[in-house]
Amino acid sequence: MTIEPAEHAQSPGVARTSRTTSRPDIAPRYESINVHNFEDVPQVQALSAAQRHDIRVVAHVLPFKSNRYVVDELIDWTQAPDDPIFRLTFPHRDMLEPEAFARIDALLDAGASAPEIKVAADEIRLSLNPHPAGQLDHNVPSVHGQPLPGMQHKYRETVLFFPAQGQTCHAYCTFCFRWPQFVGLEGKKFAMREGELLRDYVSEHPEVSDVLFTGGDPLIMRTKVLETYLEPLLDGNAAANVRTIRIGTKAPGYWPQRFVTDEDAEDLLRLFRRVVASGRQLALMAHFNHPRELETAVAQEAIARIRRTGAQIRAQSPLVRHINDDSDALARMWQLQAQLGIVPYYLFVERDTGAHRYFELPLERAWQIFRGAYQQVSGVARTVRGPSMSATPGKVQILGVSEAAGEKVFVLRFLQARNPDWVGRPFFAAYDPEARWLDDLRPAFGEDEFFYEAELREMLAVQGSPWSRDTQVVPTAAGD
Fold first, then answer.
1. Nearest to 143 by CA among 213, 193, 199
2. pLDDT tens, 99-140?
3. Residue 136's pLDDT is what?
4. Mean pLDDT in the chain?
5. pLDDT of amino acid 137
6. Strands of 244-249's sheet, edge to edge?
7. N or C: which end of the chain has fewer CB within 10 A?
C-alpha cells in the first residue's frame, strides 16, 4: 500500500538524538511503518484486535504510513487511540463512510484478491473528491499547447512544482488533501522530472516571483536529487524573476533527523546556503499540526540548523477535529514556533476531500477556535492568517461572524485569488451554522451570487491555468 522512499536512506554516523535505537553511537535509521508491518510494533500490539482490524481495513483505501520516530517520540500511547498524533498518522474506521468500510471489510474477510480489492478501493477513492479546487483541470499550465502535468499555476506570482522523486513522505497525515498522490489512482498524480522545463516556464512568465517545490515531500529525496531540480533555477541568469524558492515539507515534524543525522544532512544544509547565497529567499513551508512536534530535542536542533543557513521557516496547518481543534493547543504551537524563530503563517480549513467528514468543523466553530488562540499570543505570533479555505476561486479567510443591514453574516475576504484584483476585498455570506466550506455559503442581503462568480465561470470555461499564455484568458488586476 505504501511507496518506500528509495531515494532516501540513512547510514551510521554521528550520535543519536532519538529513542529509535538503543545504541547511542549509531545514527537513527528511517524505518517505515505501514499496513504490512504495523502490527509488529510493540505499542500497536497493545491496541485491541478490533482497533487493529479497523486500521487494516481503512489502510486499503486511504494512504497509511508512519515511522519509528513518530511512534516512539511523538505519540502518547497512554492516550491511544485518542492521542492527537496517533489520529494524525493512524487510520480510524470513521474516516470511511460505513458502507465503504463494510465493502472493503467484506472483501478482506472473503479473501479477495489484491486486484479485486483495488477495484473496490478505487471506486471509493473516486467518490472522495480526489482533486478539489480545480487542481487537475484549471491549475495546470501549458507550453505551446502542451500541458505540464507536474506543475500548477493558480496564482499569478507562484508556480507549484511536483518533483517526481518527491511524491511520498516520511509519514502520511490522515487528513492530507494530497492523498491521491500516494494511492496509485490512474491519472490523478502530479509529478514531473524536468527541472529545465520549470526554468523555461518561469523564465517566460515574468509575473512569477515564487516557485514552490511540493509533493508529497521534496525532502524525502536525497540531496543530490533535490539539487538537480534546484540547479536550473540557480544557473546563471535563468529565471532571474524568481526571488523566492519555497519547499513544502513535513520533515522537521516527522523526521527531523533529515537535517541532523542523515548521511547527507550536511549536504542538504550546504544546498540551502547556496540558494540563499544566490540572492534568493529560501523558505521552508513547514507543516506542524500539534505543538508536540516542536518539543523534541532533535526537532529543535533541526530547526536551529535550518535557520543558520539563512533559510526562513514558515509554519502552516489545517484546523483538524480530533487533532488540534483546541485554542490552547494552537496558541501553544504558535508561541513555540515564534520562540524557535519560525513564522506562524496559515491556519487552513480542512479541505473538502478524502476523509474530510471525519476532520472538518463548522466554519463558525473554526473561527471561534482561531480567535480564541489568536487572543492568547503576542504580536510576533499574530502573523498567522486564518481560518482560510483554499477553494476554487482562491484562499478565502473567515474574518468573523457579524451583523450588517440587520442580517447575521459571515465576513470574508480573499488572501489570494485567481484574479489578484479580488484580494483584500471584503464580502459577505449569509450566516449558516452548519456551513463547513465555501460551497456551503450563499451571498448575504439577497444577492444572487458573490461578486467574483461571473468572472470565475469565464476562467473555468477554459482548461488549464489562466496564467498560461496558451489559454489567452489571463485575468488582470486593477492598475496593471
1. 199
2. 999 999 999 999 999 999 999 999 998 888 776 655 556 788
3. 58
4. 88
5. 64
6. 151-155, 158-161, 210-213, 244-249, 281-287, 312-319, 343-349, 385-390, 394-404, 407-417, 427-430
7. C
Partners of residue 411 on adjacent β-strands: 400, 428
For residues 381-418, one letter each, b for 16 or more C-beta atoms within 10 angstroms of the residue's C-beta and e for the rest, the string is bebbbbbbbbbbbbbbbbeebeeeeeeebbbbbbbbbb
Cell of 264: 547527507
C-alpha cell at position 293: 512536534
Is residue 7 pLDDT above 70, yes or no? no
3-state secondary structure of 231: helix
Model confidence pLDDT, tens digit, residues 196-252:
888 889 999 999 999 999 988 999 999 999 999 999 999 767 789 999 999 999 999
What cell was used for 80? Answer: 491511544
Compute the average pLDDT of residues 243-268: 98
Calculate the CA 62 to chain-centre distance: 16
Cβ-in-10-Å burial (0-12, 13-18, 19+) of 267 comes to middle
Domain ranges of the chain: 32-126, 135-460
Task: Give the pTM.
Answer: 0.88
Report the C-alpha gap between 181 and 67 in whole angstroms: 19
Sign of CA dihedral 230, 232, 236, 241: negative
- Top-ranked range on mean pLDDT: pick from 20-29, 159-168, 317-326, 458-467: 317-326
Cell 510576533, located at residue: 380
| CA-only gyration radius of the chain, Å | 22
Nearest to 187 by CA among 284, 252, 122: 122
Measure the CA–CA gap between 343 and 435, rounded to whole angstroms.
Answer: 30
β-strands 427-430, 394-404: how paired? Answer: unpaired
In sequence order, the 6+-apart residues with CB closer than 8 A to the CB of 239 are 199, 202, 203, 211, 232, 233
Angle at 73 between CA 292 and CA 256, to 5 degrees: 80
CA dihedral 102, 121, 173, 55 (to 10 degrees): 40
Query: What secondary structure letter does DSSP report for 73?
Result: I
Burial class (CB in 10 A: 0-12, 13-18, 19+), 41: middle
Q: What is the pLDDT of residue 194?
A: 73
Q: Which fold has domain 135-460?
A: TIM Barrel (3.20.20)
Residue 423 forms beta bridges with which residues?
Answer: 414
Query: Which residue is listed with cell 487528513?
Result: 175
**Higher-scoring residue by pLDDT: 477, 120:** 120
Q: Quote the CA–CA distance of 16 and 260 in Å, as a whole number.
A: 9
The residue-averaged pLDDT of 365-373 equals 98
